[in-house]
Every structure is written in C-alpha cells, then in structure tokens.
From TrEMBL:
Organism lineage: Bacteria, Pseudomonadati, Myxococcota, Myxococcia, Myxococcales
Protein name: AraC family transcriptional regulator
Protein's UniProt keywords contain DNA-binding: yes
The entry's keywords: Activator, DNA-binding, Transcription, Transcription regulation
Keyword Aminoacyl-tRNA synthetase: no
Annotated HTH araC/xylS-type domain residues: 180-280
One Pfam assignment: HTH_18
Amino acid sequence: MAGHDASCGAEQARFWRDPELDGTEFLLARFVSHHFSPHVHDEYAIGLIENGVEAYRYRGHDRVATAGEVVIVEPGEAHTGERGTEEGWQYRMFYIPARVFAEAAEAAGVKGLPHFRQTVLRDPALAFAMRAMHVASERGESQLERESRFAGLLTTLVERHAEGTLVLPRPRPDAPAGILRAIDRVEADFAEPLTLGDLAQCAGMSDFHFARLFARTTGMSPHRYVVQRRVTQACRLLRGSRGPMALADVAATVGFADQAHLTRHFKRITGVTPARFALRP
C-alpha cells in the first residue's frame, strides 16, 4: 500500500491503512525523542521491535521491549511509549480491529476476543511472519498474498499466545459507580469545556479524591482521558468514508481550541499528525 512519510531529524513515521484487510492500520516508525502520552486504542496494537529498545507503562508496570520482540497491547488498556536507550527504537505496528481478531480467534477455536496475558513475546517465527506481513502491505503486494499472510499471522498469534478471552468494555464493571458516571459524562460531553469540578460533582466526590480514583481506575488523569476521547473521535472523522473533514473543522467538532491543539495532542497519542493520518493510500 502507498504510505505517507513524516520525518523530523532522526525521527521518521510512515502510516497507512489497508481497506482490503478490514481497515487494519499500519505504522512503520523510528522514534528518538517522541514520548507517547498515556492513551488507549479501540484496536489491538501489536508491534515488532526492529531496532533499539522501547520502554512503556502497561497494566500498572514499567516494561521494555528489545529488537526482535513482539509487543501486544489489548483494546482499552492505557499505556505510554518512549525510548529505552539513547538511540530510540524502530518498530512495525499493526492496529487490528477487535472484530477482526475475534473472527481469527474463532477460526483457531477461541470464542470471543482473545486475551494475551503477556505483553512482550520472544517468538522468532512469529516475528518473522509479522515482518513479512507488514512488508507485504507496505509494498502493495497482491491482495491474495496480503490476505493470506494476515490470516495466518492472526491465527498463529491466537494459537500460540492467547490465554482465554478478553472482557470489554473497560473500565471493568466493578469500577466505582461515581467513576462510571463521570466516564459516561465524558462520553456524552467530551467536546464541551469540562472542568475537574464538573466531573467530580458528577461522581459525587471531592476534586482530589475523584482525580486520584479516576486515574487508578482508568490509567489516565481526567484531562488525558478527555483528550484521548477527542483524539479517538478525530480519528473516526478523518477515516470518514466520504472523505476526511478539514482539520480546522475536526478540531472544532471534537472540542480542541484550534487546529494546532488538535495536531499536538493527536501526534502525542498516534505518533503521526492528523494531516498524515487523513491521507489515503
């Protein structure tokens, strides 16, 4: 597939999506100074570290992944990302819709969304298959080759490394009722100028108690959570089947003050600018 490059010094990022693979998105990037803010994905985010070391926080623990290792981040799990060495890291990422993974899991004998307990895998055969699939999409190989490699990759991942099924949505149903009310408020009004007091009042808590409990439940501060929700909606608008909206219109629609604010937060979460994300292969 034709991709879109964004380079800044030693940092490079190429992003594309493959409509023939059910909208799976791909990222080939090298990062040195870039730091991913705490964020979540609706999709499974699965990557192969090609060079260097990536450090990240996931499920309450600091992790590292080195060259040759595979990283799995499940939908709805808050995580970060930054260099683990001075040289940074280079990786190939897949963003695979949950429903696609569920279909692959069913073919492998697993009902529902597959759960991966391990976030870092050392599996040379799997890493080889991941790179071959990613490169095939990057180069625009035949549809049959891309589809065949993709199907084989996902079923192999499930057969070798899945452990049970994943329960969505997050946060878990046993989260405090007040936090769930605040999350519902964000879902309904994320484009509005919400304050900590607004959300704390919705939760029936003091500002300080709410901020602490919200972060413990979601893995993100209330501010980061609202920003995440805005960026997620911006991604949906930029993927629009009738063509992406103008960036200034997207920024206004999702609640950012202007296009510059959209761009800054969007890149901190996705690794690419909204302009690059909006370009079609």
